[in-house]
Amino acid sequence: MVLSARRPPGYASGLVQRGRFQVFLSHHSADDAAVERIAEWLRASAACAVVVGPHGLGDWARLELAVAADRAAKDDDFRLFMVLLPGAPRPDDPSLDFLLTRTWVDLREGIDDPAALQKLARAVTGINRPDTDTAEQEEVRPYRGLEVFDEEHAQFFFGRADDVTRLVEKLRDGRFLAVLGPSGCGKSSLVRAGVIPALKQGALPCSGTWTIRLITPTARPLDVLAAQLASLYPKESMQATLAGLRSDERSLDLAVSLALAQRPGDERLVLVVDQLEEIFTLCPDETDRAAFLANLCYAGSIPGGRLMVLVAMRADFYHRCAPYPQAGALMAARQFLVGTLGPDALREVIERPASRANLELEPGLVETIVDDVANRPGTLPLLEYVLLQVWERRRGRTLTVAAYQASGGVEGALAQRADEVYDGLTDPQQRFARRVLLRLIQPGEGTEDTRRRAEVAELLTRLEEEATWRRW
After folding, report:
1. Statement: residue 278 has pLDDT above 50
2. What are the helix (H) ranges across 174-219?
3. Rounded to whole angstroms, how far apart are CA atoms 366 and 293?
4. Are residues 94 and 192 in the same domain?
5. Which of 97, 192, 312, 439 is the most exposed place for a label (fewest CB within 10 A)?
6. Please, are residues 416 and 408 in contact by the beta-carbon 8 Å criterion?
7. Residue of 221, 248, 263, 242 lying closest to 302 (CA atoms)
8. Cα(344)–Cα(360) distance, integer angstroms
9. pTM of the prediction?
10. Lowest mean pLDDT: which of 56-70, 85-99, 126-140, 286-300?
11. pLDDT tens-digit profile of 331-376?
């Protein structure tokens, strides 16, 4: 049932009760009718849903919010989230900054959307029910280990739904956006398995029909860009396109306009540049580096352009863009900083892929892992790796605490596996491995070291090394 208290104008509150559980609904009295309907859907536990409609929040609701925020900071089991009603501001509206780091449920398209209401139920209960279409997926690997989540792995990508929504909202207002964050925060996966699928599913008007291309700069970023343009507009030779990119910052914009000339006016090309820091760590040619940035910035900002540019880059390379005025200005104005996942999001990363793969989690496993990972930046790759190790050591369909401990935990799993592989090599292979691994590192200059791509021919500099490689 819904219990309402008599309060001053602009104030309303309610308790939705199901058994022994409760959720407090904090909202403006003008939104009573919509909140009453939402209450019928809730399966609730200890939580506070801040319901925001076209009237914003009343003064009493703001006081309630302060109390709820204080409790949420002290009690990990207490969930505080926002519900956006039809007519509410966008989630990145400055008036909602007080809930910037909180999850939200978007009902702006209507309060009868079953998918949105299902998300509301999950937000309230904190329970992710097993998916109903996964019986045939029992043996699908649900965790990526050290590999990035790509578009084809989107069904197992969790914990960043709110960040995906925020990114899409920012793309609604402009055609250039830089996704920044520390090493290991999951920038690439967020863009590849989060934003790209969202755009293809129509997150922006007509975006379901847009052409999306993903590149990494490598040591020759202009060549990579020219190859993409040649595939879009084969009438122009790649050599001519490459020459144009080097000499004129307008070339990328013009090439995209030609490629889309016969398409509807709302058609866009989305160019996703992952690991943009490679233009600094791998590209030795300053002319190519500057031309690459100039073309991206011009095409992504010129009024009436048809290219949308989304770049992902390690935050410790942000200052390296300063010598390029247009790039520096655009990144300062159009950026999204990827933060550390909170406890609830970490639980999603662990629980939801297991649910998708029809797996069970032994009691205590999730809490143990979350305690080891929480509030530690850059540990997402290690988390995914240890989850993969736990999955490989699973007991039947159950992921166990014993498997987690045997793997070495978040801190020790990767080191333990590396030692096992290294110890299994012969002496010549160990010497060869040490040399190769050193060549795959780009030492940082005022930044962290980064990985370095290299071809096999570059690594095999001596005959005995090639012989060792062939025996391997």
Report:
1. yes
2. 187-189, 196-200
3. 43
4. no
5. 97
6. yes
7. 248
8. 18
9. 0.69
10. 126-140
11. 999 999 999 898 999 999 999 999 999 999 999 999 999 998 887 7
Do the domain assignments include residue 135? no
Both 62 and 116 in one domain: the answer is yes
Band of pLDDT at residue 45, cut at 50, 70 and 90: very low
Up-side HSE of residue 209: CA atoms within 13 Å toward CB? 8
Side chain identity at 167, as an amino acid letter? L
Cα 315 to chain centroid distance, Å, stands at 15
Picking from 39-53, 143-157, 358-372, which range would have the lowest pLDDT averaged per residue?
39-53
CA distances in angstroms from 245 to 22, 290, 324, listed in the order given = 60, 10, 16
**Stretch 375-389: mean pLDDT:** 85
Rounded to 10 degrees, the C-alpha dihedral 436/437/438/442 comes to 120
Is residue 465 classed exposed, middle or buried when 0-12, 13-18 and 19+ CB atoms within 10 A define those classes? middle
Number of domains in the chain: 3
Is 311's pLDDT higher than 60? Answer: yes
Distance of alpha carbon 276 from alpha carbon 56, whole angstroms: 39
Q: Which two tokens stand for residue 126?
A: 């904190």
Mean pLDDT of the chain: 81
Whether residue 388 contacts residue 416, with contact meaning beta carbons closer than 8 Å, is answered with no
Q: How many CA atoms lie within 13 A of 380 on its CB side?
A: 31
327 and 219 both lie in a single domain: yes
Please tell me whether residues 59 and 166 are part of one structural domain.
no
* CA neighbor of 110 nearest in space, from 120, 125, 95, 122: 120
Is residue 33 in some structural domain?
Answer: yes
* Interval 62-70 mean pLDDT: 72
DSSP state of 209: G
Q: Which helix (H) or strand (E) holds 419?
A: helix 409-423
In a domain, 359, yes or no: no
Q: Kindly report the CATH number assigned to the domain that includes residue 170.
A: 3.40.50.300
What b-and-e string marks burial along 37-57, b requiring 16 or more CB atoms within 10 Å of the CB?
A: ebbebbbbbbbbbbbbbeebb
Q: Is 374 left (phi over 0), alpha (psi -120 to 50) or beta?
A: beta
pLDDT tens readout for residues 175-217: 999 999 998 899 999 999 999 999 999 999 999 999 999 999 9
Does one domain contain both 78 and 175?
no
Closest residue by Cα to residue 278 from 458, 451, 148: 451
Euclidean distance between CA atoms 407 and 145, whole angstroms:
13
